[in-house]
Structures are given as structure tokens and as C-alpha cells.
Design goal:
Length: 230
């Protein structure tokens, strides 16, 4: 018989590294991580404008059943992001504002879920950020066991408890715990480089010249024509 577990774990990234990742955001951290780590684009924020980075606390639930979210909440602490996956595809609304209220009371930053959520107006009003596969009012049961703090796959991406989860309007990414310091350092370097480029672009420089792309166009056979010759 399958064993269902609730794993108690405190390991996670340094708070300063999580704060830094929240500042950089998903696109920068993803590039800095060697274009890795992204959760599939089907997970979207339920409202725009949030940017968080926190320690992953994971739930693996039976579809249509939120018992294990209840079981998980006492394992959560300030600075965490709750990550919910289901054992087969489900868009049922297994999370809403009452769960968010419990998580907020513990200092949890937000929810990333491969399933559905509901109470979007209330979640928006309380500014509790959620990235989900679906918004669906479909109610769920509390009857089937699952696990807390085991590795899960969310929209194609493996997330292990204690990893850093970064989420904003561009989507969601995961930085494995051991990689966090290196990704923070690479993100800072990338941001400094982009600041220099931004200043040059604002002054009128073209990417074509800054990146020396004219020889590439020529090598690839792209020809410039005047309108009358086209
Ligand atoms: O209670 C549920 O099943 C989900 C929900 O709507 C809430 O958390 O408010
Ligand atoms: Mg509700």
C-alpha cells in the first residue's frame, strides 16, 4: 500500500537570497539560471502585479480533494510559498479565501497550484497572490490522503520542498535549494549588465549595433531593399 507522509522540514534558502530573488523576478532569475527552472506557462496569476520569492512547502493531493492542504498548513511558516500538485489532472477549485486567511496568519507569501482555485474576488481584495491552472468554483472533498513536503511536479517542473519558488506576472520558476546562491549572484550580474544596456537604448542605440547583429544578418543572407526595388 502506498505510504502517505507529512514531512516536517525547515531547510530552505537564506531569507536574504529570497528577498534578492523577489527583487530580480522570474525572467532575470530564469536567464541567470541558464534558462532553466520555469513552470509551464499554463499557470497564470489570478490578478496582476504580485512578485514573490519564498521557500517551497509542497502538497501532493488526490484530485478533487483538499484534505492534504489542511494537513499542510501547520507545516508552513513566514516566507513560505505553498505549492500544490494533484496525482492526476484536476481543475477543481480546491483552494479559496478561507485557506488564504489561514496561510496569511502564518506569514505565507502565496500559492502556486497545478489545480484550480476559487474566491478570486476575495483573494484579490486581501492581496493574497495565487498562480493557478484554472479558476473554477467546483467544490472539493476532504476524504482522501496524500502527502506533504514530498517532491512534486507542477506544470512539468519538478519542485522539491525547500527550493526557492519565484513568481510574478511572467509566471513561476523554481530554483533548486543548492543553486540559490549562484543564481542570486548571476542575477545581480545580469541586472547590472541590463542597466547599462537600458541606458544606451534609451539614448537611441539599437540592439542591432550593440549586439553586433549586422554581420549575422548579412551572413544569413538578409538583403535590404528600397521600396521601389522590393
Ligand atoms: O474551503 C474550500 O474548500 C476552499 C475554499 O473555498 C476556501 O478556502 O475558501
Ligand atoms: Mg471559499
Amino acid at each position: 500500500m502506498t505510504q502517505h507522509v507529512v514531512v516536517r522540514t525547515t531547510k530552505g534558502p537564506a531569507p536574504a537570497d529570497l528577498a534578492a530573488l523577489a527583487g530580480f523576478g522570474v525572467a532575470t532569475a530564469h536567464e541567470a539560471a541558464g534558462r532553466t527552472g520555469l513552470v509551464g506557462p499554463e499557470l497564470r496569476p489570478i490578478y496582476p502585479g504580485s512578485r514573490i520569492a519564498g521557500r517551497a512547502v509542497t502538497v501532493l493531493s488526490h484530485p478533487g480533494d483538499n484534505l492534504m492542504i489542511h494537513a499542510c498548513i501547520e507545516q508552513c511558516r513566514a516566507g513560505d510559498v505553498l505549492v500544490v500538485a494533484t496525482t492526476s489532472r484536476s481543475t477543481d477549485g480546491m483552494f479559496g479565501e478561507l485557506f488564504a486567511t489561514q496561510l496569511r496568519a502564518r506569514g505565507v507569501l502565496g500559492l502556486v497550484t497545478d489545480a484550480g482555485v476559487r474566491d478570486v474576488a476575495e483573494l484579490t481584495a486581501m492581496d493574497f497572490p495565487v498562480w493557478s491552472r484554472a479558476v473554477h468554483a467546483q467544490g472539493t472533498a476532504k476524504a482522501v490522503p496524500g502527502s506533504v513536503n514530498v517532491p512534486v511536479v507542477v506544470a512539468g517542473r519538478l519542485i522539491t520542498p525547500g527550493d526557492a519558488v519565484v513568481a510574478d506576472d511572467d509566471g513561476v520558476m523554481c530554483v533548486p535549494l543548492a543553486d540559490v546562491p549562484a543564481v542570486v549572484a548571476a542575477s545581480a550580474a545580469r541586472e547590472a549588465t541590463e542597466a547599462g544596456k537600458r541606458a544606451q537604448f534609451a539614448a537611441g542605440t539599437l540592439g542591432l549595433d550593440l549586439y553586433d547583429l549586422r554581420p549575422t544578418l548579412e551572413r544569413l543572407g538578409v538583403v535590404y531593399l528600397d521600396e521601389d526595388d522590393a
